[in-house]
Amino acid sequence: MTDIAAAPLRDITAHPPGLAMRRFKDASFIVWGVVATVIGLGTLVALVSELVGDGGHRLTLAFFTSFPSSDPAEAGILSAWVGSILVIITTACIAIPIGVLAGIYLEEYAPKNIITSAIEIAVNNLAGVPSIIFGLLAVGLFVQVFGLGQTILTAGITLSLLILPVVIVATREAVRSVPLEIRHAALAVGATKWQATQHHVLPYALPGVVTGVIIGISRAIGETAPLILIGGLTFVAFLPITRPGDPTFQVIGAVDEYGAPLSPDAVESVRIDHDGVVVMPDFTEMPVEAGQTYELPHGATVQSVASVGDAVESWSPTNWLDSEFTVLPIQMFNWTSRPQAEFLEIAAAAGLVLLAITLLLNGSAIWLRYRLRKRIKW
Amino acid sequence: MDRDFTKKRARPIEGVMEGLLFAAAALAVAIVAGILYVVISEAAKFFAQVSFLEFVTETRWTPLFDDAHYGIAPLLTGTFMSTLVALAVAVPLGLLVAIYLSEFASSRMRETIKPTLELLAGVPTVVYGYFALLFVTPILQRMIPGLPGFNLLSAGIVMGLMIIPYIASLSEDAMRAVPSSLREGSFAMGATRLETAFRVVFPAAISGIIGAIILGMSRAVGETMIVVIAGGQLPQIVTTPTQQGATVTAFIAQVALGDIAFGTLEYQSIFAAGLALLVLTLLFNFAAFGLQRRFREVY
């Protein structure tokens, strides 16, 4: 116990002792803060300059229009970027509607009951599941049980499940930020619940939803681990879609795995679309003309050159969904794991392309979000 | 024609939409159930052939050898070591950035730095793996003589750099959520910004900060590509970060890179490893949730 009366009198208007030191510590912390921030931002700079230094000179037009090859000087990312686009289209078509609808349900419709809390727990935990576990799900369920194969469809479904929590959470936040008065006003003039949601809540929430979707898509583009489990490191030197000028092959009738017709004597009348040749089952060739109809035996192959029309037709998802594929991150990983330095160069070039796409997408999402925060003041 | 406004018109679309919305949301539960079903059922087939005791006590993990041993310990030490290195990098740096941005930086500075840092979180992990192997490892080899070309140190450091944005951004949110009246009270008592930051704001925001750290940790544990590319894929008991090593995730990827013959013990072993990983990350999620509740201060 200190006797109050015995405490020495101090001039309390004077600076407290040690103030200079405390101020110095305060100021010097700023240095630490700046150093830490610079290390964080410096990583990005180092990353980009490393990739540019290693692979920048390989970013030629030919790099984008060549298939992968065992010769690093010739190899390119054609099948990888086309594969990435097709997989991402599939992913977006699945994840966006489901994620947005689920987000709307949880914010606008969900009653407070045990089912809703189960859904909330599921969404929150899904966000924390490591991506490679989604690969196990894909192999164990989609490939093994559903028999979808190691295809673009399987990859698209897997990635859409992976980014579903991102889309759901973004949608919920966007919908929640629309003020209650908007809904009340709509309901007051006779709108039903879905009309109010569709015509009044959703348009206001749209920019927030788009932001979440962009971030999700960007994540799906860069994701490698789950696709290793379904795609493996397959060498893909073909495109799931056809380009004008590509050779096309049309097999007549049903054939077994050796190309032999299942019913050898069957004949079919076929209308030929383009000039080309028909290779008969006995390997004799017969030239054919466009517009003519020929009687062809089963097992024959019509070979011609794809026209622009064929190329457009090949864009129908039924033509590429069940195709094997490779994507940009897998192609980059494939080249990174080879010992020769030339492959590391093209790995860096592929990394640059990947980095440019993801930074662009993330940057636009962040820009959209900050703009949004500034603009809308309820 | 007069319309009778008191009559309610049936709109079947209302019911249809509500059903559709519910189905979409319920899918999340189905996905979780699907993951649990696949991983647990395949892991069960694994444990029918390998005893659970061997799984947790054996110190060798060699499913791909003729003399196969199935001890998860080497993979777990690899995972813990790389995560530890990542946290040693990301926690101090992330928290420094968070305190600086929340308590010292001007709002304009903050609005510029935070989104730029968030860009780091969007970099694909395979690019980080390349960066670890060809940028960080050579630098480390110059500093540490005899460091192998593949090591967990380099993978861990880059993983740490990767999770800085998560820790910094979420901690900064937590600290900014502390009411400014607490800060003003501290300033009025004569405390400096630094003292206020460490003795008032930091303790008040501790729940959010711990949540941020655990989230970062969970990211590091589940990270695959960086360790696969830079870590060496060699399952051994790891005692120092300068060793080569394999993590649980790296092993799964390594098996997948070969030809998986479905239904073999080797195929089932990746699900057993996956189950271990899933349990680990779910534990972290629940721990973060529980801690946040326990330390939450109500203002």
Description:
The complex is a heterodimer of chains A (about 375) and B (about 300). With about 375 residues, chain A is an alpha+beta fold. Chain A is built from 13 helices and six strands. In chain A, helix 1 crosses helix 13 and helix 3 runs antiparallel to helix 8. Chain B has about 300 residues and is mostly helical. Chain B has a single domain, classed as MetI-like fold, CATH 1.10.3720.10. Chain B is built from twelve helices and no strands. In chain B, helix 1 packs across helix 12, helix 3 runs parallel beside helix 6 and helix 11 runs antiparallel to helix 12. At the A-B interface, helix 1, helix 3, helix 4, helix 5 and helix 6 of A face helix 1, helix 3, helix 4, helix 5 and helix 6 of B.
Please give the CATH architecture of the largest domain in chain A.
Answer: Orthogonal Bundle
Q: Which CATH class of chain B?
A: Mainly Alpha
Estimated share of beta-strand residues of chain B: under 5%
Cα distance spanning the termini of chain B: 60 Å
What characteristic shape of chain B results from the CA principal axes? flat
Low-pLDDT residue spans of chain B: none
Give the mean pLDDT of chain B. Answer: 87
Considering the protein shown, what is the CATH homologous superfamily of chain B? MetI-like
Strand order of the largest sheet of chain A: 1-6-3-4
CATH architecture heading of chain B: Orthogonal Bundle
Q: Into which percent range does the helicity of residues of chain B fall?
A: over 70%
Shape of chain A: extended
The number of domains of chain A is 2
Estimated share of beta-strand residues of chain A: 5-15%
Return residue spans of chain A where pLDDT drops below 50 for at least 5 consecutive residues.
Answer: none
